[in-house]
Amino acid sequence: MKCYNCGNELGTGQFCLRCGADVSLYRRIVRLSNSYYNAGLERARLRDLTGARESLQKSLQMNKRNTDARNLLGLVYFETGEVVEALCQWVVSKDLQPENNLADDYLKQIRDGRNQLDTMNQAVKKFNQALTHARMDGKDLAVIQLKRIIKQQPKFLKAYQLLGLLYIQQEDYPKAAKVLRQGLKIDTGDTLCQKYLQEIQGKLGKNLKEEEPEKTEEKSAKTSAKMSAKSSAKSTAKAFFAPDPPEKEDVVMPPYRETPGGMRAILWVLTGIAIAMCMYQFVILRSKNRDENVQINQEIAAYDSKLADKELEMEAMRNQITELQAENERLSETVGALTGNDGSGNQYDALLGVVSQYLAGESSDSEGLVAAFSKIDETAVDSEAYQKVYAVMKEHLTVDSISDIYEEAYNLYKNYYYKKAIPVFEECLQLSPDHVDSLYYLGLCYEKRKNPEGALNCFQRIVNEFPTSEYYDNAVKKVKALGGTIPETTAATVAETVPAEEAAAEGEAAAEEAPAEEAGAEPEEGE
Amino acid sequence: MIDFEEELSKFRPSKEVDQAEDAIVNMNLQDMTDIMVEILKEKDK
Q1: Position A426 in a domain
Q2: Does the structure show a pLDDT above 80 at A211?
Q3: Do A457 and A396 belong together in one domain?
Q4: In angstroms, rounded to a whole number, what is the distance separating the alpha carbons of residues A381 and A374?
Q5: Are residues A515 and A389 in the same domain?
Q6: Inter-chain contact B16–A121, Cβ cutoff 8 Å?
Q7: Residue A180's closest CA among A195, A20, A169?
Q8: Is A242 inside any structural domain?
Q9: A447 and A418: one domain?
Q10: Does residue A387 share a domain with residue A498?
Q11: Do A387 and A479 fall within a single domain?
Q12: Rounded to 10 degrees, what is the CA torsion of A265, A270, A272, A277?
């Protein structure tokens, strides 16, 4: 024992000879730790691994440097399939006592048997998977997985516990009892297995009690029958072989013995052959069948594991199919969006049609070309190239066509065809929303057509958006006349500029409005 | 009477080899001797 303070080897006294620390309490703690270790060792020898684990953990709680207890605890963990817990204990043990430590051997064996460690780790991973399946309504899958784990790692106690629980849940009590008894062979003190077994006994108790009296009756009947048969056989044999009781007055004769003849010898040989054949049937063929059965069982187990693998693969493939279907739907929607009436594909086609017509030299001012272009949605396609081509075409078509359209509209206006002029001016504005001329004359057309709201909208736009326009002053007047509002900033400027320009503007306005006023009877009124 | 869901919730996933390092690092190694030494230090102060 070493001093907890300086690490010096202690003698038998109550104090350390080197540092003088009082080690009496420390001695008690170490003694307690050792006694817990002894208890743990005893329990481990009796395969009560749960009890051993508890004792050894207590021992280590007393003295963490109790290397023997730590190594044994690692062994206990390893025995129940908890390989990582075992490794932890041995690594810590090696860290606390680097020299002359049994944990060295264990760790070396683990390192040498790398495949075994991998197998155990695989079993742990599968157990965790099975636990997840069991929690997520995949109990059948969990049962298959646990069976495989037990086959692969027969000492994995947790697998027995979980499989037993799953069998209980499926009300397959005989199988559950079998599995739990196997678990108890690994750890006789495992409380969980014991608890589940008690539950099963509680469930099956009634059935067993009902069956027992029948069985005992059957047994007693069988034994009595056997006994009676034996006794009768014995008595008949005795009676047959025993010499008849000599009657008092009879002459004693020697027993008669027939010498074996030819037929009898043949019969004996045939009987021997028959017996030999029966022996062959019973012994050799049965053993053969047994081997075949074992082989078949192994094949069934192999097929079971393959089936479980395939089920897992199928599950993964089903998920993949669902994902692919979702992706397919998404792509179909995208294709639909591209190829539909408002799809970007059609918009591309329409734009290319306009461009090709324009490049082919077809009259750029033709209404058809402009109308076709006006149907194209600028925002339908999110492509930089598309936007550029659209902008270029718009510029060309607008510049080329707007003057023609405006001229046509203005001519209509000049000839008092206000009703016809309105849609043509609107077309101009559609092509170029900032075309002030069209806006102004559209307002005048509305005014002539007794549509004050439309007129006010047009003049109000000129006042609000085009303060530097030549039509501004007239627009202000119109707005005032129609009851609209003039922004304060522009009102001030107007007040300053109006007196100077008033005469000219009024003259201009009068000139512009002259044809309209002159129209006592508009030609289109009658249309 | 065993409640299946309750019993199932008691099962904890086993540690895999990849988690061994973390398990060793996070292991609580305080024992009665450490507590005794701490108490003696407190007493000396």
Answers
A1: yes
A2: no
A3: yes
A4: 15
A5: yes
A6: yes
A7: A195
A8: no
A9: yes
A10: yes
A11: yes
A12: 170
- Per residue in A369-381, pLDDT (tens digit) is 777 777 787 777 7
Whether residue A526 is contained in a domain is answered as no
pLDDT for the residue A44: 95
User: Out of A155-169, A290-304, A382-396, A494-508, which region has the weakest mean confidence (pLDDT)?
Assistant: A494-508
The reply to whether A390 and A437 lie within a common domain is yes
Shortest CA gap A91–chain B (Å): 8
B37/A contact by beta carbon, under 8 A: yes
Interval A482-499: pLDDT, tens:
888 877 765 555 555 544
Q: How many domains does chain A have?
A: 3
Q: Cβ neighbours of residue A166 under 8 Å, at least 6 residues apart?
A: A134, A139, A142, A143, A146
- A162/B2 Cβ within 8 A: no
Whether the per-residue pLDDT at B4 is higher than 80: the answer is yes
Q: Residue A230: what pLDDT?
A: 46
Compute the half-sphere exposure of residue A115: CA atoms within 13 Å on the CB side of its CA.
1
SS3 state at A22 = strand
B15 touches chain A (CB under 8 A): yes
Average pLDDT, chain A: 80
What ipTM goes with this model? 0.90
- HSE-CB for A201 with a 13 A CA cutoff: 8
Residue ranges making up the domain that contains A150: 125-212
Instruction: Judge if A75 and A145 occupy the same domain.
Output: no
Q: Domain boundaries in chain B? A: 15-44
Decide if A456 is inside a domain: yes
User: Would the CB atoms of B15 and A61 count as touching at under 8 Å?
Assistant: no
- Compute the average pLDDT of residues A3-27: 84
Same domain as A99, residue A177: no
Interface test with B, best of A87, A96, A139 (most B CBs within 10 A): A87
The confidence band for A391, taking pLDDT boundaries of 50, 70 and 90, is confident
What is the distance in angstroms between the Cα of B45 and the nearest Cα belonging to chain A?
Answer: 16
Joined together, the tokens standing for residue A381 give 């396609």
